[in-house]
Amino acid sequence: MHQVQLFIPCFVDQLYPQTGMNMVKVLEKLGCNVTYNTKQTCCGQPAFNAGYWDEAKSVATKFLHDFDGEGYIVAPSGSCTGYARNYYERLFDNSAEHNLSLKVRSKMYEFTEFLTNVLKIEDLNATLNGKATYHDACGALRECGIKQGPRKLLQNVKGLELVEMKECETCCGFGGTFAVKYEPISIGMAQTKVQSALDTGAKYMISTDVSCVMHIQGYIDKNNIPMQTMHIADVLASGW
Predict the structure, then answer these.
(1) Spans of all domains in the chain
(2) Ramachandran region of residue 214, left (φ > 0), alpha (ψ -120 to 50) or beta?
């Protein structure tokens, strides 16, 4: 039995709690022993990206100690996973937490990455009827190297026809504070992403990161577009 420490990112905790519950549902179905440390907060990425490295280090130090336990650390976010994996070493260089940061980084996985690379699972017997396209979230693709795993999982969802859109690897335009500082550009990028998905005839646009899902769905709702975004954990937990 695999021991899993659950990390729930801020967006999931505040806006998409059901996605976190569906991740637990999938992991428990696969026989994992899932634990959740209620003291956990943020990984520190927002402060780090905004240039507040001292504040980011303070939050990240708490993260390290919150997850200094046995087993894997699994999160429904390539963004948070990629940040911890790629930037904690720099943040904790020449510090007392350096070795602990290396330990935590080595155990941290994005949800689909954990399913395909650790559990070696590609078919969860899920069902979702309709045509779907997949959006490569920047964190998952560029920070974690996640590309084929989510697609293999979706290709095995019964009733789901997976089609590729031309702009699958293009950023959706969210980028955290980027969407606030550069709103017109952010909206334009969302428009490009949604149009690319519409061109495929897809009903669903699926991703690994709820930040992308939130941003894209906001554009869809504002413009009354007949499409629905979904986090991949919600898809994999459907139909059973």
Answers:
(1) 3-117, 123-236
(2) alpha
> Residues 177-186: contacts with CB within 8 Å, 24+ apart?
177/46, 177/49, 177/50, 179/215, 186/215
How far is the C-alpha of 237 from the C-alpha of 240, rounded, in Å? 7
Model's pTM, two decimal places? 0.95
Query: Crossing angle, helix 78-91 and helix 53-66, to 10 degrees?
Result: 110
Say if CB 139 and CB 78 are below 8 A apart: yes
129-176 residue pLDDT tens: 999 999 999 999 999 999 999 999 999 999 999 999 999 999 999 998
Report the alpha-carbon distance of residue 77 to residue 43 in Å, rounded: 11
Whose structure tokens read 């894997």?
72
Q: Return the CATH number of 123-236, one of 3.40.50.11810, 3.50.50.60, 3.40.50.300, 3.90.190.20.
A: 3.40.50.11810
Judged on CB neighbours under 10 Å (0-12, 13-18, 19+), 52 is middle
Type and span of the H or E element at 47 = helix 45-49
Of 110, 115, 102, 188, nearest in space to 153 by CA? 115
Q: Where are the alpha helices (DSSP H) in 67-205?
A: 78-91, 98-107, 111-113, 138, 144, 148-155, 178-181, 183-198
Q: Both tokens of residue 57?
A: 């280090």
